[in-house]
Amino acid sequence: MPLMDHLRELRNRLTIAVLSILIGTVVGWIIYPEAFDFIKQPYVDGIQPLLERRGFNAELVLSGGVGSAFSFRLKLSLAIGLVVSSPLWMWQIWAFILPALHRNERRWAALLAATGAPLFAGGVTVGYLVLPKGIEVLISFAPDSVNVLLSLGDYLNFVIRTVLVFGVAAQIPLVVVMLNRLGLVSAKQLVSARPWTIIGIFIFAAIATPSTDPLTMLFLAVPMTVLYLISEIIAKLTDRKRRKTVGTDVSDDQAAPIDGPSELDRPSDLRD
């Protein structure tokens, strides 16, 4: 395809992607009350124990000027639009890249995409479930004699950042499997690096989690560790299949010589 045709196709696909996001944003604007209640629920669940146990008030407030209410609703609607329209605009990106891939690459890319979506959704779900505990811990640092007033904008950023951290962290198996398929990392290297990798996972979980309590950190670190161990098993199976196909008892130069036939192709009596 000529360059101008590629550019026209890119323009058309970007137009479709942007329109899908705009339509999703309109949908988010319509369902804003229900979406806001859903987003606010972790806050309600997180502060309710404090309200009963410590007897002080904690409220969500809308600050920032006259247009802050419109800005907040538009921001939440846009976030909903990105999520609702994600299958369509992601497909536009995928459809633009797909013709450039070989058949085997397409198969693996489709498999990784089909696996990555459930993993991301699972990570986001876990992040949403641990939000109440994180909010409870963070608000508990407030003195008993004061009321806690939180900005709606800051709270929305907090929720989005938390669920995204959990969703991205759930992609560890895909990254490890992809590196193994590219031949950059072997299963033996993954096993030898396991202790340091697990330590790194817990350090990442301690930094990335919104609260300072160990329970929230474990909610992120333990699934990441389990997923890493699963990726080790997949890498071992992949390496085993690769060894059966290529062979491991000879070097690459001996198996695929640059000049002349390989020593493996010569009869044993002629070698003597």
UniProtKB/TrEMBL annotation:
Keyword set, alphabetical order: Cell membrane, Membrane, Protein transport, Translocation, Transmembrane, Transmembrane helix, Transport
Subcellular location: Cell membrane; Membrane
Family annotation (Pfam families): TatC
Alphabetical list of InterPro entries matching this protein: TatC (IPR002033)
Coiled-coil blocks: none
Domain of life: Bacteria
Segments traversing the membrane: 12-32, 78-101, 108-131, 158-179, 191-209, 215-235
Biological process (GO), any one: protein transport by the Tat complex
Gene Ontology CC entries for this record: TAT protein transport complex
Molecular functions (GO terms): proton motive force dependent protein transmembrane transporter activity
Compositional bias ranges of the Basic and acidic residues kind: 263-272
Membrane topology: Multi-pass membrane protein
Keyword RNA-binding in record: no
Disordered: annotated segments: 245-272
Assembly and interaction partners: The Tat system comprises two distinct complexes: a TatABC complex, containing multiple copies of TatA, TatB and TatC subunits, and a separate TatA complex, containing only TatA subunits. Substrates initially bind to the TatABC complex, which probably triggers association of the separate TatA complex to form the active translocon.
Family: Belongs to the TatC family.
Function: Part of the twin-arginine translocation (Tat) system that transports large folded proteins containing a characteristic twin-arginine motif in their signal peptide across membranes. Together with TatB, TatC is part of a receptor directly interacting with Tat signal peptides.
Stated name of the protein: Sec-independent protein translocase protein TatC
UniProt organism field: Aeromicrobium endophyticum
